[in-house]
Amino acid sequence: MGVDIFRHVDHVTSILESGSLSSIIGSRYYYAPFYHIYTAVSNQILGTEIHTTLFLIFTISMVVVFSTSIYIMTNIFWRPTFALIASILYLSADSVILWSISPQTTSLGLFFSLLSIYSLIRYIKSSNKIYLLLMTSLLLFTASTHQVSLFATFIIISSYVLFYNFYSEYPLNRSVYVMSISLLVFFLDSIVTRTQPGGATFFDQRVFVTFRSLTSGTGRTEHSLPSDPQFTATGAAALNEVHIMGLAILFILSIAGVLYYLSLDSHGKNNHLVVTLGGLVVVISFFTFAAPAIGIDLFMASRWFAFLHIPLVILATLGIFAVVSVASNALSSNNKKMLFIISLLIIICPYLILMGGNHEGAYDDPVFDSAPGAERWMTTETERELYKHASHYRGDDSDVLGDRRSDFPYQYYNGEGTETIQMEYQNPNSIIEEREGDLILYREYLDTNHPTYTLNVNGDRHNVHGPIPINKIDNRNYGKLYNNNKEGILIVINDVEG
Q1: Which tens digit of pLDDT belongs to each residue from 396-454?
Q2: What pLDDT is recorded for position 314?
């Protein structure tokens, strides 16, 4: 699993050992602890290893809930065949695979969010207040789990109601109920949850980050970095086309599906369905693509893709059937069923390969790994040995340096973290300045274009991908304590000057 999971496992372990939330009181998770409490209680009941518990209570249940929710929601609008294909498309989406195999707070937030949206749709269709109560309860669960998921859910629910009202004669008072409840839960969460005790609220912190980005004049990180093939800014700039082609297929199919559906529904009786879902795609895309493009990342755009896939896969099924229908008419085939299956395979197989092999779908070790951002999050056996041996050589006053992804695995095995390697631009020796006696975790991975470290350029710090030039440091200033094939532990033996 990816390294972020180690942080959550550490919090769960602390709760189990202390028997209370006191162990995470200094963390932002203290204000949204449902994930950690649920995992700790489940671990006590099941009596298994924590990673096994996570697999049992999250990965398996998420596959069931995700597929069932998408199936039922799609089936509300269209027939079961559409719903089945939509479920397959959603379960195969890269971001959904990511949050399923690496169950974190985002995973549980998405879990509650999907059920909240389902409850909303059922309430709109039936006017049964049980569904309104269920939606309220699920929003509260989302608030106690993951703030970003709550904000995304709030945006989706609000947008859905607004678009639905625009094209249908839905009772205004019911819309007011839904909007008021979702706004109230979001408002309460915004003023209660904090980044740390006595600190700013999570919402204030995100607004501050966004305001600083807008007023600094730098915008996106890659715009403020010098052009140099030795490193790449983290984020979208570190990926190439193959990592978005799966999503591009969904967008193309969705657009084709909407146009085809509108052409069939010439009287506009059911236009509100595709208009509402299409409107959701536009709104979520703003937070995912448009806002970050100008330096606004109010609520972590990278976490929104699993939410974007919800309306996309429902609309994409229309696109698949549009393609099949057009092909059937063009070929005048007598065997419609066989043509449907062949067309389905031609469309879905590339989608499955692209989604399942990119930087999120193959989270631990991407198949398409040419881009710097396609990181390997898996810890190899030699790296485990490296982390374990480092604790034997670490002195009381020494620090351990490594790339950003080595921090949590090292902490998992040794109970203490590492410091991220920092380097002044074009000065490899700066890595070990004032570092005498400290250790460097030298993974073979550091020589690839994937590792992440901190680069200082004109006094500004940036997280970048690229080979970390340990081999360009004056070798008189470090020694090797441990060697395992191409990986080892280095110790700084002299305080060098730039």
Answers
A1: 788 999 999 888 888 888 878 889 999 999 899 999 988 888 899 999 999 999 999 99
A2: 92
Helices 94-101, 336-357: axis angle to 10 degrees equals 60
Neighbouring CB atoms inside 10 A of 172's CB total 9
Closest CA to 36 of 49, 48, 52, 23: 23
Q: Is the model's pLDDT at 495 over the cut of 60?
A: no
- Please give the pLDDT value at position 498: 45
Q: How many CB atoms lie within 10 A of CB 176?
A: 11
What does the radius of gyration of the chain's CA atoms come to, in whole angstroms? 25
The model carries a pTM of 0.86
Residue with tokens 């395979």: 345
Check residue 224 and give left, alpha or beta (phi > 0: left; psi -120 to 50: alpha): alpha
Closest residue by Cα to residue 179 from 167, 191, 170: 170
d(CA 309, CA 96): 9
Query: Taking a C-beta distance cutoff of 8 angstroms, is the pair 71, 81 a contact?
Result: no
pLDDT at 166: 78
Pick the more confident residue, 474 or 308: 308
Could you report the per-residue pLDDT of 214-259, keeping only the tens digit for each? 666 555 666 678 888 899 988 888 888 999 999 999 999 999 988 8
Phi, psi for residue 146 in degrees, rounded to 5: -155, 115
- Could you tell me what percentage of the chain is helix, strand and coil, using 3-state DSSP and rounding each to the nearest 5? 65, 10, 25
In this structure, how many other beta carbons lie within 10 angstroms of the beta carbon of residue 441? Answer: 25
Residue 69, Cβ density class (10 Å: 0-12 exposed, 13-18 middle, ≥19 buried): buried
CA distance 240 to 98: 19
Cα–Cα dist 169/129, whole Å:
19
| Closest C-alpha among 336, 439, 426, 440 to residue 395 | 439
Amino acid at 219: G
And the tokens for 166? 């625009």
Element (H or E) spanning 461, and its range?
strand 460-465
Cβ-contact 246, 358 below 8 angstroms: yes
Q: Which two tokens mark 1?
A: 């699993």
Predicted confidence (pLDDT) per residue in 26-67, tens digit: 777 777 888 889 899 999 998 888 888 888 888 888 888 888
Q: State how far the Cα of 327 lies from the Cα of 311, in Å rounded to an integer.
A: 25
CB-based contacts of 38, cutoff 8 Å, min separation 6: 57, 108
Q: How far apart are CA 12 and CA 256, in angstroms?
A: 46
Amino acid at 18: S
Q: How far apart are CA 76 and CA 125, in angstroms?
A: 9
